[in-house]
């Protein structure tokens, strides 16, 4: 080979693939992803069903090297986590969209990470996967290599943890799954979880450049963090009838800041009044907290303007869902 026609450099081989984070609502999937990435990428709240879309988060993991075969052993993994909405039964276009998003991610990934709430007496045993509202996710994860994260073990009494682990290990022996106890809130067990996921990924070139954190645009992530405030600051039911639309997103290089104009979409005039609050107090507080969260994510000052718009029954109309960005496999 001449100098004019050099041999191209070898493409490094790592362990790389897509890992769908799936489970029932409010088990801590998004909290876990944020913990792994070390950044507040996805919306989190104590209310179930906060997550509505598939969100990709890319995380590198160093791998132990086999001294006997150091040249052939991948030294790192690139785990492409896909956070998903909690699987749920029920009617309505938005619920159907969220369920389809989660099941599609579980079916398309290289492996599944099933997150279980170990502190939930009703939902923490393997038998829960056979119940009608959970059967679909149970079927989906059995078709892929599987790791089970028993989350929130920091809230489980030690006498209860041993029989719980035993039940899952018995189930795992049939499913060929790894069972890892963790706490996404404290970080306990997360390193062991990452190692278990990485071991099950196929060998391949990296799927994304090293400096890529997600495939989602900043304006989508901003909408998610603003919507998070609706779940944190509003009553029990109202956040489920609300969505965020980013009307404008201007990055001002000369000032090193971002100017965002967003709309809070609700379904009824009475909901609009609650979001606005007396004298505009509530929408102001939502805006302040949302601006701070987005500024932390983007690493620069953010100026946020919020308005509220009524769009009757948007959550139960397929066309309205698409207008608001809830399109199957859609990216913003």
In short:
The protein is an alpha/beta fold and 332 residues long. Helix content is 33%, strand content 22%.
Explain what you see.
This protein is α/β, with parallel strands linked by helices and 332 residues long. It folds into 2 domains: 14-204, P-loop containing nucleotide triphosphate hydrolases (Rossmann fold, 3-Layer(aba) Sandwich), CATH 3.40.50; 218-323, 2-Layer Sandwich (GMP Synthetase, Chain A, domain 3). The protein is 33% helix and 22% strand. The protein is built from 9 helices and 10 strands. The protein has helices at residues 29-37, 93-108, 135-141, 158-175, 190-199, 218-233, 269-276, 281-298, 318-323; strands spanning 14-22, 55-62, 76-83, 111-117, 146-151, 177-181, 203-204, 243-252, 257-266, 302-310. Strands 1, 2, 3, 4, 5, 6 and 7 form a 7-stranded mixed beta sheet that branches. A 3-stranded mixed beta sheet has the order 8-9-10. Helix 3 (135-141) links the parallel strand 4 (111-117) and strand 5. Helix 2 (93-108) packs parallel to helix 3 and helix 6 crosses helix 8 (281-298). It is globular. The model has no long low-confidence stretch (mean pLDDT 90).
CATH topology of the largest domain: Rossmann fold
Number of domains: 2
User: What is the H level of CATH, i.e. the homologous superfamily of the largest domain?
Assistant: P-loop containing nucleotide triphosphate hydrolases
Write the H/E string, N to C: EHEEHEHEHEHEHEEHHEH
Question: Which regions have little confidence, pLDDT < 50, spanning 5+ residues?
Answer: none
> Terminal Cα separation, in Å?
46 Å
Secondary-structure-derived class: alpha/beta
DSSP E strands, number: 10
Provide the residue-averaged pLDDT. Answer: 90
Rg estimate, integer Å: 22 Å
Named CATH architecture of the largest domain: 3-Layer(aba) Sandwich
The coarse overall form would be: globular
């Amino acid at each position: 080979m001449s100098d004019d026609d050099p041999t191209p450099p070898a493409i490094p081989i790592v362990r790389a693939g897509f890992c769908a984070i799936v489970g029932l609502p409010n088990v801590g999937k998004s909290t876990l992803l944020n913990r792994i990435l070390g950044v507040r990428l996805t919306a989190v709240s104590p209310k179930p069903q906060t997550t509505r879309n598939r969100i990709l988060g890319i995380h590198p993991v160093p791998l132990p090297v086999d001294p006997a075969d150091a040249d052939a052993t991948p030294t790192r993994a690139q785990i492409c986590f896909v956070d998903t909405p909690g699987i749920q039964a029920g009617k309505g276009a938005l619920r159907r969209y969220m369920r389809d998003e989660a099941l599609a991610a579980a079916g398309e990934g290289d492996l599944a990470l099933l997150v279980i709430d170990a502190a939930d007496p009703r939902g923490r045993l393997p038998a829960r996967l056979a119940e009608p509202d959970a059967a679909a996710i149970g079927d989906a994860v059995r078709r892929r290599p599987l790791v089970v994260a028993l989350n929130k073990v920091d809230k489980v009494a030690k006498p209860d943890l041993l029989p719980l682990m035993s039940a899952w290990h018995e189930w795992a022996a049939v499913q060929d799954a790894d069972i890892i106890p963790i706490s996404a809130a404290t970080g306990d067990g997360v390193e062991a979880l990452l190692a278990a996921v990485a071991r099950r990924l196929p060998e391949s070139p990296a799927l994304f450049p090293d400096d890529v954190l997600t495939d989602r645009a900043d304006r989508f992530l901003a909408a998610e963090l603003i919507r998070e405030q609706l779940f944190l600051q509003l009553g029990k039911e109202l956040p489920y009838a609300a969505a965020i639309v980013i009307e404008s997103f201007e990055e001002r290089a000369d000032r090193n800041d971002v100017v965002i104009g967003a709309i809070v979409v609700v379904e009824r005039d009475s909901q609009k009044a609650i979001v606005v609050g007396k004298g505009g107090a509530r929408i102001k507080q939502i805006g302040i907290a949302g601006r701070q969260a987005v500024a932390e994510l983007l690493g620069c000052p953010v100026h946020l303007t919020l308005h509220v718009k009524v769009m009757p029954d948007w959550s139960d109309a397929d066309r309205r869902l698409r207008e608001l960005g809830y399109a199957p496999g859609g990216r913003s």
